[in-house]
Design brief:
Largest sheet: 5 strands, mixed
EC number: 2.3.1.234
CATH class of the largest domain: Alpha Beta
Number of helices: 11
Structural class: alpha/beta
CATH superfamily of the largest domain: ATPase, nucleotide binding domain
CATH architecture of the largest domain: 2-Layer Sandwich
Shape: globular
GO molecular function: iron ion binding; tRNA N(6)-L-threonylcarbamoyladenine synthase activity
Strand order of the largest sheet: 5-4-3-6-7
Strand content: 15-25%
Number of domains: 2
CATH topology of the largest domain: Nucleotidyltransferase, domain 5
Number of strands: 12
Main location: cytoplasm
Protein name: tRNA N6-adenosine threonylcarbamoyltransferase
Radius of gyration: 21 Å
Cofactor: Fe(2+)
């Protein structure tokens, strides 16, 4: 099969209309991606309000809500795209990593629809979806590039030479950056989800009122560790409480110090990764990639290296169906599909994915 990259999409004579389904955690996402026309429609239902009462995601509640919302969202997206179910050529769903019950909901619906429509179905790697989300933009990155995948469950640096051609450069040895944001939010008495609320509070902080450590930046290597930073934040909070000085301004100052430490740590490691690989393109993806301070820090660093930073629009930084539809389309164009078995893999290293060998032959690489 011959295909070329035009505006970030693999295109060719064998065009496909792919329905993408995302149910890895607490977002129900659906999208329709056409390999000739691009993204046609997408919809997302967030369970944030439901889980906020518990201070975090309750897996059983998440699964039940996916059951309620998924098919109506599929029908909504198909109608908004001006299509019918019979127009669908394939269905992609998130197979992992994620909450196993939530993954099974998406996989079950995908396989049931695929069987009813007589179309192929493919389980997609959630983090590959995030990594490829910037390809949906008007100015997508060319291969090779370095990717920073940063979310609630993952903090990874990956060299990407093509779809499925991944070399792990570094990852967190304990807490992910997004997880550290959520735990810091709880320390500060902020609601779920914590990351955006910490960032919003940090806007009111006084710079340099506190100075937090930049973990693992004083040694070589590209791995991350945020558990120590989390402990340092907790100790700072407790000291302020004991001193009777835990005011709203102090909370904002702590939020800013924490956010600055995470951003500086990620930026330092990204600079090292670009220098180590010789790449001059950096992709940031995942929920934390929507953080404005992180984007500004990475862009400033990249300019000094004469490099370029790419990221998805904010609505495609968090979990969504569009990234799954796109990633699934690329692999389906290469002939991949599930058998009859639903795939649900709660833990799934991304560097075990098979490569799409067409990438270099068809204009995806400089």
């Amino acid at each position: 099969m011959r295909s070329v990259l035009i505006h970030g999409n693999l295109m060719g004579p064998d065009s496909m209309l792919i329905l993408g389904i995302e149910t890895s955690c607490d977002e129900t996402g659906v999208a329709l991606f056409d390999t000739d026309r691009g993204l046609l429609a997408h919809a997302l239902f967030s369970q944030i309000d439901m889980h906020a009462d518990y201070g975090g995601v309750v897996p059983e509640l998440a699964s039940r809500d996916h059951v309620r919302k998924l098919l109506p969202l599929c029908d909504q997206v198909i109608a908004e795209a001006g299509c019918t179910r019979k127009d669908i050529d394939g269905i992609a769903y998130t197979a992992g990593p994620g909450l196993v019950g939530a993954l099974m909901v998406g996989g079950s619906v995908a396989h049931a629809l695929g069987f009813a429509l007589g179309v192929p179905v493919l389980g997609v790697h959630h983090m590959e979806g995030h990594l490829l989300a910037p390809m949906l933009e008007d100015n997508p990155p060319a291969f090779p590039f370095v990717a920073l995948l940063v979310s609630g469950g993952h903090t990874q640096l990956v060299r990407v030479d093509g779809i499925g051609e991944y070399e792990m450069l570094g990852e967190s040895v304990d807490d992910a950056a997004g997880e550290a944001f959520d735990k810091t939010a709880k320390m500060l008495g902020l609601d779920y989800p914590g990351g955006p609320r910490v960032a919003a509070l940090a806007e009111k902080g006084v710079p340099d009122r506190y100075r937090f450590p930049r973990p693992m930046t004083d040694r070589p290597g590209l791995d991350f560790s945020f558990s120590g930073l989390k402990t340092y934040t907790l100790n700072t909070v407790n000291a302020a409480i004991d001193a009777g000085e835990f005011s709203e301004q102090v909370k904002a100052d702590i939020a800013l110090a924490f956010e600055a430490a995470v951003v500086d740590t990620l930026t330092i490691k990204c600079r090292r990764a670009l220098e180590q690989t010789g790449c001059r393109r950096l992709v940031i993806a995942g929920g934390v990639s929507a953080n404005k301070r992180l984007r500004a820090g990475l862009e400033k660093m990249a300019r000094k290296l004469q490099a370029h930073v790419f990221y998805a629009r904010p609505e495609f930084c968090t979990d969504n169906g569009a990234m799954i539809a796109y990633a699934g389309a690329q692999r389906m164009l290469a002939g991949q599909q599930d058998g009859e078995r639903i795939v649900a893999v709660p833990r799934w290293p991304m560097n075990t994915l098979p490569p799409i060998n067409e990438a270099r032959a068809n204009g995806l690489v400089d």
